[in-house]
Amino acid sequence: KVAEEIRENLSWTLIKEEEATKNPLPPYTTDSVLQDAGQRLGYSTRQTMNLLQELFESGLITYHRTDSTRISEVGRYQVARPYIISHFGEEFFYPRGWGEGGAHEGIRPTRPREPEEIRYMVGAGLISLSNPEQALKFYELIFRRFMASQMRPAKVLVATVSFKTPSHEWEEKFVTRILQEGFEKMYPTFNVVELREGTQAEKVQFQLVPKAELYTEGTLVQEMKKRGLGRPSTYAEIVTTLIQRNYVKVLPGGRLYPTRLGRQVYEYLKEHFPKEVDEELTRQLEEAMDRIEAGKVDFQEILQQVYEIRRYLEENR
After folding, report:
1. Cβ-count burial of 306 within 10 angstroms (0-12 exposed, 13-18 middle, 19+ buried)?
2. Partners of 14 in the beta sheet?
3. Is the dihedral of CA 201, 207, 213, 215 positive or negative?
4. Is 28 noted as a catalytic residue in this protein?
5. Contact, 235 vs 35, CB < 8 A?
């Protein structure tokens, strides 16, 4: 009832309109594809990793355990270019390398094959997929994200709107018109809003009672990456282990809720092994592995340091 009263008294005023440029998102990495597969397709982290492995083994996508968005010249000019030019025109092709270095590229299709072409190949027995429908939906997500990453920016008209209620006032920005089409034809990341009397007021959502935001499997992986915990090859396994051991439960809608057992295990480890489970130690080990991979440090030196830390912890426990 309170929300309805606020909605009825909500008014808005157009402050200004200006041109802006919208750029596409980079190609998928392991953490971002795990999040999108969960949010867009409802796939669990384990299910997603299994599908990625199958698509990779079938030769349909590049290596999927990667934290790099880098795209090679092969990806740009032999995969993206012919598809984009044939479907949208040469003016839409806007090659981007998305960074340098890294052992692997971002996740992308290996050839300019649309999902329908893959579906035909499965039907003809040229490719075998354990669950074709799930795999094809997922492949389309990867395909569209990559192709959009190699397309020109979109030019749009953005409106700044002031909203006002009897007790509060704030501003929001909305895309109201596309002035020049670009990547959004392949993978839209924004909505176009028609501003007219009554339109936006009906779209405003109110949340009067704050509530704790629970992680999904995908957002948990994003949080792990932000904190420097885990690797592309271990993200899904960590989350799956938490669920299998009943440390967290998956609620309707995919949200994760810590169980009583999970809280007890956490408190026990925190009390008895505080240094071993400290996030900073994990981050240091992750950084050390990166330095070893880059050839900047001798692995035996790192192993000696780990041994000394372990001995110190055991002696002072």
Report:
1. middle
2. 161
3. negative
4. no
5. no
The average pLDDT across 277-302 equals: 83
Comparing CA positions, the residue from 141, 176, 144, 137 lying closest to residue 160 is 176
Interatomic CA distance for residues 129 and 141, integer angstroms: 17
Asked if 25 and 148 count as a contact pair (C-beta separation under 8 A), the reply is: yes
Residue from 180, 149, 148 nearest 21 by CA:
180
User: Does the model's pTM come out above 0.90?
Assistant: no
Do the Cβ atoms of 240 and 295 come closer than 8 Å? no
Burial 203-212 (b: 16+ CB within 10 A, else e): eeeeeeeeee
Give the DSSP H or E segment for 154: strand 154-164
- Residue 63 phi, psi dihedral angles, 5° rounding: -60, 135
Q: What is the largest CA-CA distance in the chain?
A: 72
Work out whether strand 248-250 and strand 169-180 pair parallel, antiparallel, or are unpaired. Answer: unpaired
Residues 6+ away with beta carbon under 8 Å from 156 = 19, 20, 21, 22, 175, 176, 177, 178, 179, 190, 192
Both structure tokens of 179: 């002035």
How far apart CA 21 and CA 6 sit, in angstroms, is 34
Q: What is the per-residue pLDDT across 95-145, written as a single tens digit (0 to 9) for each?
A: 999 987 667 899 999 999 999 999 999 999 999 999 999 999 999 999 999
The answer to whether 58 and 127 have CB atoms below 8 angstroms apart is yes
148 residue type, one letter: A
Coil, strand or helix at 36: helix
Catalytic residue among 28, 43, 63, 139: 63
User: What is the DSSP-derived secondary structure letter of residue 25?
Assistant: P
Distance (Å, rounded) from C-alpha 183 to C-alpha 154?
Answer: 6
